[in-house]
Amino acid sequence: MDGVPTPLRCFNEFHSAEMFVDDGVESVTSVEQKKVERSIEEVISVYKQIHSLPQPTLLREQHYQYLKKGLRHLSDAYECLDASRPWLCFWILHSLELLEEPIPAAVASDVCQFLARCQSPTGGFAGGPGQHAHLAPTYAAVNALCIIGTEEAYNIIDREKLLDFLWSVKQPDGSFVMHVGGEVDVRSAYCAASVASLTNILTPKLFENTTNWILSCQNWEGGLSGVPGLEAHGGYTFCGTAALVILGKEHMLDLKALLRWVVSRQMRFEGGFQGRCNKLVDGCYSFWQAGLLPLLHRALFKEGESELSRQRWMFEQQALQEYILLCCQNPTGGLLDKPGKSRDFYHTCYCLSGLSIAQHFGNVDLHHEIILGREENRLVRGRRTFYHIYWSSIIYMHLILCNLLLLLFYNICPEKVAQAVQHFLRLPVPDVNKQPAASAGDRPEDSASTSGSADHQS
Ligand SMILES: [Zn+2]
């Protein structure tokens, strides 16, 4: 398949038959859906006029320049993300690693020093210097430091205090609040499990009851909601599922119901994913939704499912690439939600992450690529080690590589996860008998609110 120009879906005469039909009942939602489809039709029509060959191009150089500039300078438009600054570091650094662009040592060191200033004296990281610790920027900061992967980066993380912070946000029912005095949702369990496992401070006691709490977020639709009883949502579903994988309990989900829900979120005409039933397509769900399919593939494989493909994930990988490459690229760099929206670092990171998933299936032995367009569109095979273990499960079952199983769920490239895990496994787990000092969620402290992935309510 490599390098062979593939016919584009949008060049097919039957493509327009996939457009939304409202059965004569117009609603606010149907009007919006048709508007988006028209804008995509326009993009496709322009593409057809300019290009006779179906070779959509990933604008690597433009994305690189946009990302590089973002590490040093942000426009006024980012003022509203003042409480999400570690996220900006993570989104940019992860995008650069997917593009296989090295981070200059001086820049890496500056990012380390900045993140050090975001670390709270009480443990965990805040959205900016002098703010309160919060699980979302803690996840972003730990990931960013692991991507940098230097001794300087690792040594910034105060693991003992990080564990204190995690205990301070743990709730008796197994859930976590995002920050002391803050809200509970399934993102927090994922952020806590992710940073705890990456830095080797994960203890069974810390995650007591967490599995059951996350399982209670899976609803009748098959996906997971932010808290029990609400609507299923792509961001929360990824967070909950990935947290369960980290805890080794994903088999307790209704996997078939989850599979049915997520594959139904890929849009028939657009090719990208929506976040919730009856919502519009959005580039960032290329990761939150498509990222669930490798997790489900592995979980179903472990459950003995014999009908699984050894060449493809269970979604239309080419259609997703087509959506990202044709509809989500800003010609001057950066990626976006849908045509007509502005570029930003969040969508750049998650569109590229989704593109990588859509391009690569399998492992070293069974690796299968579907690269739409030019060879240069190939992103780093971000999850190679994970897939390798997935297909060769009896080979690598000692402790370090068990941790490597988790790498898909951090959304960091595998070599960096391996390096971080090896580094932190050499260090002892701080006081495994540690207990919560008090019911932290009841403390009346005020706290800076920091946005995380699933705050994006598309
Ligand atoms: Zn989005």
Automatic annotation (TrEMBL):
GO terms under biological process: cardiac ventricle development; lipid metabolic process; prenylation
Function in brief: Essential subunit of the farnesyltransferase complex. Catalyzes the transfer of a farnesyl moiety from farnesyl diphosphate to a cysteine at the fourth position from the C-terminus of several proteins having the C-terminal sequence Cys-aliphatic-aliphatic-X. Catalyzes the transfer of a farnesyl moiety from farnesyl diphosphate to a cysteine at the fourth position from the C-terminus of several proteins. The beta subunit is responsible for peptide-binding.
Enzyme class: transferase
Cofactor details (free text): Binds 1 zinc ion per subunit.
This protein's encoding gene: FNTB
Subunit structure: Heterodimer of an alpha and a beta subunit. Heterodimer of FNTA and FNTB.
Cofactor: Zn(2+)
EC number assigned by the record: 2.5.1.58
Region listing for Disordered, in residue ranges: 434-458
Species annotation: Sparus aurata
A cellular component term, taken from the record's GO annotations: protein farnesyltransferase complex
UniProt catalytic activity: L-cysteinyl-[protein] + (2E,6E)-farnesyl diphosphate = S-(2E,6E)-farnesyl-L-cysteinyl-[protein] + diphosphate
Biased composition (Polar residues): 447-458
Family: Belongs to the protein prenyltransferase subunit beta family.
InterPro entries membership: FTB, PGGT1B-like, Prenyltrans, Terpenoid_cyclase/PrenylTrfase
Protein name: Protein farnesyltransferase subunit beta
Lineage, opening ranks: Eukaryota, Metazoa, Chordata, Craniata, Vertebrata
